[in-house]
Amino acid sequence: MKTTLKIAWRNIWRNPRRSWVLITTVVVAVIGYVGTTSFTRGFMYEMVNSAIRYYGGHIQIIPEGYDTKPNIQLRLSHPDRMAEALARVPGIHFAPLVTFKGMASSSEASGGVVINGIDPQKERQVTIVSEKIIAGDYFESETANAAVIGEELAERLNVRLGEKIILMASALDQNIASGAFRVVGIFRTVSTDFDRAFVFIRLDDAQKLIGYQDEITAFSIHLQQGYDLQQTVERLRETLPPGDFKIQTWRERNPVLVLSLEVYEYFIFLFLLIIVTAVAFTIVNSFLMVIYERIREFGVMMAMGVLPKRIRRMLYWETLFLTLIGSTVGIVLSYLIFGYWRRHGLDLSATSDALGKLGISTVIYPEILMSDLLIGLGVIVSLTWIAVLYPAYKASRFHVVDALNFV
Q1: What pLDDT digit, counting tens, does each position of 377-394 carry?
Q2: Considering Cα of 25, then 27, then 32, then 34, what sign does the dihedral take?
Q3: For strand 176-187 and strand 146-150, is the pairing parallel, antiparallel, or unpaired?
Q4: Over the stretch 35-91, which tens digit does the pLDDT of each residue have?
């Protein structure tokens, strides 16, 4: 075995140009695979983070049936009792929420919006809208009937900081309720749709507008770092008092996003197979050329008593050496290239409009996972080894006399 390894290693450097072409092919395949997986995973993680950071946290506690048919008639009664139970659950921040659809209008324009009644201090711990204020403040002043709106909505209504808008919605008594609210803050997030659709007002103002007493629509819950989602859900089920409510995770609230994540995994595997198949055909072609160049050499080896299986084994080792060299160089270069972007991010401001529709930041941070690297390396080594089976079999089937007389 030791002799076979030495011969195989020396054979790949007998024609360094051809060997480096094969190694470069593997390097390009590895870089292409790592780049595609890391950036696609970065895009998906950004979409997940947006769904969590802007749309109600990791978990929401909602009235039973609210997820299938949102209606202000469905609400959580006695939220104080539930809040006391939530305070005993470790690793979470929670905030009450009253949310309903309505209409926002100014003297010049109007449009449909989603009105969120919040407790500003608690909401800061659940969502990051308070960090995206570009003008005014996040309910820090004592202004009565204050509203915080998105930059897109402000442009749509043509209102500026300090001006009033009218919010209208259907109340519990089925009548249309309305109120004048002064714009005290304007925010800008990564999602243009979010900035166009959402209006934030204080919790008591929202309850008064639609006729609630102390009822709320939901509790939004954000997990602290290091706490598991499913374990927290189980702890909530054990801690919360019995009631007509449902505990819903971000995955259950965003089935389309979850489907996209699943499709992504299949896409990555398919892309890997396409890349590796191209590499495999290159190796098959190159080794067939190698075999016809070395027919006389194989004939001499067989004449000296070398068994066909040893010739096959030698070619297997040559392929393995080339693949491992190419994979190692590819992984090192990938970490240098994509590791830099992982730390500093890749600015895609030129595509900000398209990314804003998806709720993705213009700065993408690729995610390089060890599991992706191991799967990619395993598939590349396996398929390239399979690719050399036919050339190796061909090399071991020559007749000694024919091989020695081959010109």
Answers
A1: 887 778 777 777 777 776
A2: positive
A3: parallel
A4: 888 888 888 888 888 888 888 889 999 999 888 888 888 999 888 889 999 999 999
As a whole number of angstroms, the distance between CA 95 and CA 403 comes to: 81
What is the C-alpha to C-alpha distance for residues 122 and 220, in angstroms, rounded to an integer?
Answer: 10
- Written as one letter, the residue type at 348 is L
Query: Hey, how many other C-beta atoms are within 10 angstroms of the C-beta on 224?
Result: 12
Question: 106 has which bridge partners?
Answer: none
| Pick from 4-8, 134-138, 221-225, 226-230: least confident | 4-8
Distance CA 320, CA 8 (A): 10
Q: Which two tokens stand for residue 348?
A: 């895609």
Q: Is 249 left (phi over 0), alpha (psi -120 to 50) or beta?
A: beta
pTM: 0.75
Q: Do residues 366 and 269 make contact, with C-beta atoms less than 8 angstroms apart?
A: no
Residue 71 structure tokens: 């209606």
In sequence order, what are the residues at sequence separation of 6 or more whose Cβ sits closer than 8 angstroms to the Cβ of residue 143? 182, 184
336/328 Cα distance (integer angstroms): 12
